[in-house]
Fold this sequence. Notes:
The chain is α+β, with helices and mostly antiparallel strands. About 50% of the residues lie in helices and about 25% in strands. Helix 3 packs across helix 5 (about 150-165).
Amino acid sequence: MSTVTDRxxxxxxxxxxxRGGGGGEDEAAPAKSKKKLVVVAAAVVVLLxxxxxxxxxMGPGAGGEETAEGEAEAAAEEEHAEPEPGEVLALEPVTxxxxxxxxxxxGIALQAALxxxxxxxxxxxxxxxxxxxxADLTGKEMAELQDxxxxxxxxxxxxxxxxxxxxxxxxxxxxxxxxxx
Length: 181
């Protein structure tokens, strides 16, 4: 569609001129297409920026392997982390024959390890622990058990064996009775 405008000549006669035709149309079309091109380019830049942000902040580029390794290390630390003490189960004292006709009356208490999440752990049955104590202390020299340093070594060994027997559900053991004759 063309629109007609009036143009004044030098003698005052008006000559109709078409607007939008010929060269004028060529000037308006590039201006509109440049605007569209700028809008499309801006939209593409925004989308690429959003995609890059997602990739580096939340997607696979967010440290994927490093994060997985860090999580694996944290899980391994939790498994090997020192358990927290839980409930204590006191066992009846038992009498053990020592060397040279002496005997030891020993009572122990087992302290359960708290389970992950704060649970009380497995219900402990003291029979395994008493069996280990009897097996380890029978035949020991009375002089060896009188020395505090040696007694501490014996206790550390007992703690290790009892914890292993209870699949690390035992945090510690305590001597509640320790009488030698």
